[in-house]
Amino acid sequence: MYLKQLSYSNFRCLEDTKTELDRNFNLIYGKNGQGKTSFIEAVHFLATGKSFRTKKTKELFRYNKNRVIVFGKYINKNEEENILAIDVNEEKKDFYINRNKNKYIDYVGLLNIISFIPEDIEIIVGNPSIRRNFFNYEISQAKKDYLKSIVDFEKILKTRNKLIKEKKTREEIYSIYNEKFMEEGTNIIIHRREFIKNISILLNLNYRKLFDPKSELKLKYDCFLGDIDKKTKEEIKEKFSENIKRKAEREKILGYSLTGPQKDDFIFELNGKNAKSFSSQGEKKSIIFSLKVSEIDMLVKEKNEYPLFIMDDIASYFDEVRKKSILDYFINKKIQCFITSTEDLNIKGKKFIIEKGKVITDEK
Ligand SMILES: Nc1ncnc2c1ncn2[C@@H]1O[C@H](COP(=O)(O)OP(=O)(O)OP(=O)(O)O)[C@@H](O)[C@H]1O
After folding, report:
1. Helix 144-165 crosses helix 128-142 at what angle (to 10 degrees)?
2. Is there a binding annotation on residue 30?
3. Is the C-beta atom of 30 inside 6 A of ligand 1?
4. Would the CB of 29 count as within 6 Å of ligand 1?
5. Where do you find CATH 1.20.1050.90 in the chain?
6. What gap in Å lies between CA 277 and CA 286, rounded to an integer?
7. How are strands ordered across the β-sheet holding 67-75?
8. Which of 15, 88, 177, 269 is such that its CA lies 20 to 30 A from the CA of 187?
């Protein structure tokens, strides 16, 4: 799939415009502070309804404005053209597919996108909730029923916590919620185990191919239940149930859930050592880049089409050799990518020069 056209109104510092994009390579080029990141943020926002820089959508409104519209035409794997749009104001966010208003759950995942931004290093060094959010989003892109499980699980967890806090743990309603909690929780565990197993193999292959053929990189699912590697769904549920029973008394004292996949974590291990504590900055960046490339492979396997890729500030990440191997990767795979840079890159495609929010197209 690829994005053919992008337009936006009131998006950060960008001057309202309509842009025709290259099917493969789009270089967003300019000096610091001109609007390069804002441009790829608009692409990301169109695809996901979210920014990769902020949770507060209001920050996307141009100063003193209270509404943003992004609009784009994309071509899917059957070469069909579709139109997406998001209209957001202070109160609500509306999603449109081919000019019809739709729910977010139906909108997200139509235009798949993978991003690589400086803040992604947090996936390794940040706290477990960052990794959980990251993998939740990635698994959802490939599996719609996972997104549903996550949304349902979060609602159930909230109610379960409320019931524990109110000490209504012996009532019938608690046991109904407990059953739902275990059922959805187990679905999440199974999806996570499967996804991590598959992506870990790709991650190692990609890291070796792109950066270091002698290294061994593993991604491990650190499930709150301990080792569930070879367990069936029923066995996992059983273990979950025992875990709940064991922690019930303490949950009552503390007033919230002490068990469940909301406690899961994921560990990156480079040559047998936890990357969070032992890997260098350059190795961490390379691990994350390999992870992103592996996500592309996973999406291609699941959906049989390539997602879009956006990468902010390539020059600040990698040396010349690594930069070349990364750019070669995108060119060979024929992925539509959007790369921002303060230096010109000698690659065939479209160059968009950004100056004070104004986008100037320069065919290369
Ligand atoms: N909501 C907004 N409305 C208007 N301008 C904004 C808004 N948010 C940020 N800006 C301004 O937009 C400008 C461009 O920011 P952006 O991060 O897109 O630049 P950039 O070209 O990627 O810069 P760099 O190379 O330094 O990363 C900044 O000067 C910033 O202050």
Report:
1. 140
2. yes
3. yes
4. no
5. 127-304
6. 15
7. 17-20, 2-9, 67-75, 81-89, 93-97, 100-102
8. 269
Determine the Cα–Cα distance for residues 202 and 208; give it in Å rounded to an integer: 10
- Give the tens place of pLDDT for each residue, 123-135: 999 999 999 999 9
At the topology level, CATH places domain 127-304 in: Glutathione S-transferase Yfyf (Class Pi); Chain A, domain 2 (1.20.1050)
What is the topology classification, in CATH, of domain 1-112+305-363? Rossmann fold (3.40.50)
Q: Is 32 in the pocket of ligand 1 (CB under 6 A)?
A: yes
The CA angle 125-126-129, to the nearest 5 degrees, is: 140
Mutate to test the pocket of ligand 1, among 27, 28, 34 (most ligand atoms within 8 A of CB): 34
Give 142-176 pLDDT, tens digit per residue: 787 899 999 999 999 999 999 988 876 567 888 88
* Residue range(s) of every CATH 3.40.50.300 domain in the chain: 1-112+305-363
User: Is ligand 1 within 6 A of the CB of residue 310?
Assistant: no
Is the CB of residue 64 below 6 angstroms from any atom belonging to ligand 1?
no
Question: Which residue ranges of the chain lie beneath pLDDT 70?
Answer: 168-170, 363-364
Distance 345 CA to ligand 1 centre (A): 22
Q: What are phi and psi of 171, to 5 degrees?
A: -75, 160
Residue nearest ligand 1's atom 25 by CA = 32
